[in-house]
Amino acid sequence: MHTFEGGSVKGFEAEAGKVGNTPLIELRSLSGSPVRLFVKTEGANPTGSVKDRACVAMFRKMLQDPRWSPQKTILDSSSGNMGCSIAYFGSRLGVPVHIVSSSKLTREKRVFIEYFGARLETMGTFTIEGNEYCRKEYDADPERWYFLDQLHNTVNPDAHYTGTGPEILAQLPNVTAVVGSIGSGGTLLGTGRYLKEQRPQVKVIAVEAERGTRIPGTAALVDGDYRTPFIAAGFDENVFDLSVKVTHQQAVAMATELPRAGVFGGLQTAAVTAAACQAVETLGLRGDIVLLSGDSGWKNIETLSNLSS
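The structure assignment produced for this chain is given below.
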């Protein structure tokens, strides 16, 4: 574990300014008239995942909150990517961070979180178990903790309503559909809300893990994973037009294809790509389709290496 001294709001904002405006890459090997598939490469963000967007937005709100002080420890639960974001940007601020992770945490993400000085606990199968633990810790000692609560903090989807959605429309004005995994639901809800307001005909496809499947960043709702308020809103408000379930085997098969198409993503990205191909085949999706790539392949390199061995 490293200790990063001299953090400041200025240092945080310098890194926060690097979040967003991620490239859109066409999967030419999987595209073909009348469909073009484009990957929104969120792995290009500072810590290698889409979670940097919501993390930066929550930090900015935190800094304006009268309950916040630099003496408090930032606290939250995560299956991995948000934990990396909080650890990194917390180090830029120079404040302590405590992450409670689920069993989905990969070795690479664990090393990253601890390298940037955060304390890490692992418990439970689902992120909600850590979230409930964090809530109890905060309630017992609110002067010690600042609980971000990504699963219920509305800044999470708002960051994508003001960021990811507008970026996609600017990069691909004729977008017809967006496909993304359901984690906390914040990314897909915020992005989908914006795009449907601007182009009501845009379809939003939510990707879930099939029964018995463990894919980091993809909720296993069929196995009892927590249905966050953002997931509920996505379905209840008809932002999510439908959901597609993906098996581990489907994700693994696609993971071996993506590098040949020029995309270095993990199993989450592979699952989203597999779901998109399935939706094109069975639902007749057409036009320019955006696939939200949750994180970079380096965060899953051990798993990916085992696939090719």
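Interim note for the steering committee: The mean pLDDT is 93. The radius of gyration is 18 Å.
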